[in-house]
Amino acid sequence: MKPLNFKALTLAVCVGATLSLAACGSDNDDNNSTANPAPASTETIKGTAATGKPFVGKIVVKNKDGKESTAVDIKLDGTFEVAAPKGGPYLIKAYNDKTGDQAVTLYSYSMDAKTQVNVNQLTTQAIFAANGQASLDALYKDWDKQNSVVTAAKVEDAAKKVAANLSSQFAAVSIDAKKLNIFSYEFKANGSGFDAVLDKVQISGFSNCNVSSCNVKYMINGSEFSWNYQISTTGYSWVVDGGGIPGSGQNCLVGVDVKVAGQNVSQKVCYSNFPTNTVCGAANGALGSALQVFSSGIGGVSATYTFSAVGSCPAGATVVAWK
Prior knowledge:
single chain, 323 residues, alpha+beta, 4-stranded antiparallel beta sheet, 4-stranded mixed beta sheet, 9 helices, disordered N terminus, signal
């Protein structure tokens, strides 16, 4: 079981409550400072770039305002970590240093940088479909103007259609396509599982575009494949902007009602990336042992809690990645 990010929960509960640092705790023994740190200007986006084998090249990211990160090298195992100018949704680009037919550019998408992001031919196809099968290079160039058009809902629908088109290939490696978030499914570029599907599926031609269309080709195991842009996605349950472990569509929402010297303060903390086989409730040892701190009467503080598994974190909740 993964440990609870107790610091984040503590801070969330203490927001709005008139509690001293002694009651809420501090990471710094020097509690005399009253200076507030400047808000972070970047967010760290982590993920894996692979097309069946680790992608060799660089990663660069644009935020919703069109501000671009510094390009960083993708590691030998396909993983990457980039500091992006803060402000999602983000459009992510992986590219190599080749020219002509050897040049490859892949794209992906992240709403809020809270979950790991995959960059591969499947995520590129989803962005391509969400963009009306138009040039992705042009989309990246004008992301500040186009992110309100290429919405999370369109990306989600297109990603589900990717999973539906390849449902047989995913079933062959024991992955349920109806619960598969291609953007955040955690895998290693080792030729097995999800990566084995990437090995078999080739999608090319995203940069082969004219004014009206792009000449994209689809191959599975070396044979041409007819892509169905209208395929049904009934029963496909995940959401692109709700966090949750890939395939689960689940987050753990904790409602915290704190009473301090007669004053009631309510907070909501939503744990994303929450495994389906982990209890979202007081019976969860990691959650329960941490939450008991607030019901133990420290400094006259008492608290009650409610728990619920949710498909997406609601507005107003403090979102904390379950790590």
